[in-house]
Amino acid sequence: MVSSPEALSARAVDILARLVSFDTTSRGSNLALIEWVEAYLSNLGVATRRVPNADGTKSNLMASIGPAVEGGVVLSGHTDVVPVDGQPWSSDPWTLTEREGRLYGRGTCDMKGFLALALAAAPDLVAADLKRPVHLAFSYDEEVGCLGAPDMIEVIARDVPKPALVVVGEPTDMVAVQAHKGIASYWVTVTGREAHSSLTHLGVSANMVAVKLMSHLVELSERLERQADPASPFLPKGATLTIGQVNGGTAVNILARQCLFVFDLRTPPGLDPQAILADFFAMAASLDAEVRAKAPEGGVKVEARSLTPSFAPEKDGVAEAFARRMAGDNGPARVAPYAAEAGQFQGAGFSTVICGPGSIDQAHQPDEYVEIAQMERGAQFMRRLIDDLATA
């Protein structure tokens, strides 16, 4: 007998408590959580497969339940979370805490709540007479640029009978989201030559060079805002560019030897980040030559930190229609300003939708939470999914 939505929700909350207890901040490893999930699925007779990073310190995890046929559903989510450093939490961020209908803890909404629901459904999926399979796809390093998922998506495309669709369970209040912006982020390192600040002819200030580059980016950001399509469904409507970190120099009277800054460009579907940044790259190359002419040991280096594609609305999208049926969602078309792994799945040829418990408004915050009511809605989604996949 398939569990009731109430029983499935209760099971998911218990699993969420275990998942939250693992500190999977992106700067560290997620292997302890992966090992727990492997053991949980093994006890159900479900085989798993790791797709690790290069040094084996982190891993994606895949598992399939049901017949090895095409037409299955991928339930995808990331295992990593953002740091809690310096945030004023009211309770231990690594202990699931219930207060007034909310479940507090790091990752509760972003996005271990969805992982818990998928795992809570696993015993019923195993017991059901599925006609089409469910594929679990849990990634690492989403929070630092969606770095882990591409290798796993490649394995799915190569080794798994082609799924009909992918549900990426980012927090959407359990309604369907059909598009998100992409993100291109870069490290820029300017290396000059130190000298006394009164003897500027003897050195090159990395800070002064970096300011030129950052000034160009500020102007570009303002231009992108002016050029935003007023009919865009996104908010902000157009591409956005921000400089998130700057670090340069050692003292006021020393020409800075090095300056490092990081920026990110977020683009709606249809805009090419490389084209938008073409003039910036050309300027960086020109300044690199100027610096090297004065200080051969110096220069300007621009390195890609992340290149996550945007996720575009699909005409008559199979995944969106499926998620709306499972969620009981008859609302308007929706988009998200953040970047996620949905664009990567779509780019690999999979019909994709974003739908998961919780609100992005609570993500990355102190006292992050997911409402119990959202977990209950997610359990109803999973219950309908089981019924749907058991239907010929």
Strand order of the largest sheet: 1-2-6-3-7-14
CATH architecture of the largest domain: 3-Layer(aba) Sandwich
Strand elements, count? 15
Ends: how far apart? Answer: 18 Å
Subunit organisation of the chains: single chain
Could you name the CATH homologous superfamily of the largest domain? Zn peptidases
Percent of residues in β-strands: 15-25%
- Which series of helices and strands comes N to C? HHEEEEEHEHEEEHEEHHEHEHEEH
Computed Rg: 23 Å
* Count of discrete alpha- or pi-helical segments spanning 4 or more residues: 10
- At CATH level 3, the topology of the largest domain is Aminopeptidase
Global morphology: elongated
- The CATH class assignment of the largest domain is Alpha Beta
The overall pLDDT average reads 97
Give the helix/strand class. Answer: alpha/beta
Q: Could you give a short account of the major beta sheet?
A: 6 strands, mixed
Which residue ranges are poorly predicted, with pLDDT under 50 across at least 5 consecutive positions? Answer: none
